[in-house]
Amino acid sequence: MGAVQTASHPSDGRHPQDANPPSFESVWAILQETDRIVKENAQGMKELRESQKELVEIQKATDRQQQKTESELGRLGKRMGDVVEYMVAPDLREKFKKFGFHFSESSQKKEVIDEDNDISFEIDVFLENCSKAMLTEVKTTPTTEDVKDHVKRLAKMRKYADLRGDKRIFLGAVAGVVITDNVRKYILKQGFFVIEPSGVGFTITPPKGQPKEW
Q1: pTM over the 0.85 mark
Q2: Residues of 74-95 as b/e, b for ≥16 C-beta within 10 angstroms?
Q3: Is the CATH code 3.40.50.300 the one for domain 83-205?
Q4: Which of 18, 59, 79, 111 could form a disulfide with 14 if both were Cys (CB 3.0 to 4.6 A apart)?
């Protein structure tokens, strides 16, 4: 009976596939490639951070320019409002006569301040007589928010007058250079008069029915 041959194994315990370890050159090539990838990623992250910084600076510059533009527009709008106010005010008393209002006095930029009762507001053009007064708000381009503010102003005027025993009737008007159809309708709906340019002068449109009284 022949002898049974057994497969021989290396005495150091390694498997046959480990008999040919990677060469120095292949390991070095892998390390170089890894280093290249790491450096590329690091450079990419650096460029990304720099780009983010540039975007932040661009956004800051944009915000500053926007704030400057809004500020300039605000000042321009105020100057335009002042121009409209000084154009309208001198003839306003005469214009309101056709509606049966005979105001004996007219003032501009009238300030009402009552610190004890926390009341303060400004009236662009204030027309008055012994029984009635008209509070006119002047804006270059009035908005519905401006009209709402004017409603609050009339309410404050009523409160201020009552605290002093002033029983006069208060009315409101809104003047503007450019008034959209929606805003014009809203002004009239609140019971205010609408004052707007017409040719070289201006016209006054009354609300339907009786103007609202405060």
Answers
A1: no
A2: eeeeeebbeebbebbbeebbeb
A3: no
A4: 18
